[in-house]
From TrEMBL:
This is Competence protein ComZ. It comes from Sinobaca qinghaiensis. Pfam families: ComZ.
Amino acid sequence: MDQELNMRFMEVAMRHVQEGQSFLNNKGIELDMHDLQPALEMLMQVMSEAYEMGYEDAKENK
């Protein structure tokens, strides 16, 4: 994956970390940033796959 795109995905993910952490805390699940790292990596993979799907769809519908 393009490093610049990866950084943009990380910026998006980081904008929502506090919201996600608050949601988990309200559910009684306390996690620190170290614990959240695997979830962030999974989110990055999801965003990458969604981007690729959109990219392929856009190419097909030109």
